[in-house]
Amino acid sequence: MKMIKLCDLASYINGYAFKPEDRGDVGLPIIRIQDLTGNAHDLGFYNGEYPPKIEINNGDVLISWSASLGVYVWNRGKALLNQHIFKVVFDKEHIDKNYFVYALMCKLSEMKTKNSWCNYETYYKKRL
User: Fold this and answer.
1) What domain range includes position 114?
2) What global pTM score does this model have?
3) What pLDDT digit, counting tens, does each position of 36-82 carry?
4) Per the domain annotation, does 78 fall within a domain?
5) Which regions of 1-128 does DSSP assign to beta strands (E)?
6) Burial of residue 101 (number of CB atoms within 10 Å: 0-12, 13-18, 19+)
7) Does residue 1 lie within any of the structural domains?
8) DSSP bridge partners of 46
9) How many domains does the chain have?
10) Does the keyword DNA-binding apply (predicted)?
11) pLDDT beyond 80 at 91
């Protein structure tokens, strides 16, 4: 079996650091980690210019990497990516998206069971 590092499979586009005053009631939804995990209470919208690379659409693979590690397949229409979430752009190697999501979910699950520096959730819970 050929082993390939994640950085050699795809490009990982980090979301934009929207400011609180950027959030409004009209425009495209700003997707935060809470919106991926189901813990969102208020969805913010942005109605201005933005870098095209932070636009997400149905089928895009997203990875949350701050405080909550997770992999998600976006399915709620056109939106904008907030900071601390990567959009995976499969532009380096041919790989099945479904397999990538499955393999990464397995690896993240394994990481969560270990007490390592990568396990942000455990790190923060131990200090609260």
Assistant:
1) 6-127
2) 0.83
3) 988 777 789 999 999 999 999 999 999 998 878 899 999 999 999 99
4) yes
5) 11-14, 28-31, 44-46, 55-56, 61-64, 70-73, 79-81, 85-89
6) middle
7) no
8) 28
9) 1
10) yes
11) yes
Instruction: Residue 59: name the closest of 100, 27, 29 by CA.
Output: 100
Cβ distance 72 to 36 under 8 Å? yes
* Residue 87 within any structural domain of the chain: yes
54 token code pair = 């932070």
Residues 6 or more apart whose Cβ sits within 8 Å of residue 54: 13, 15, 16, 80, 81, 87
Residue 95 counted as domain residue: yes
The C-alpha atoms of residue 92 and residue 62 are separated, in whole angstroms, by: 17
CATH of the domain at 18: 3.90.220.20
Amino acid found at 102: Y
Among 91, 92, 74, smallest CA distance to 82 is for 74
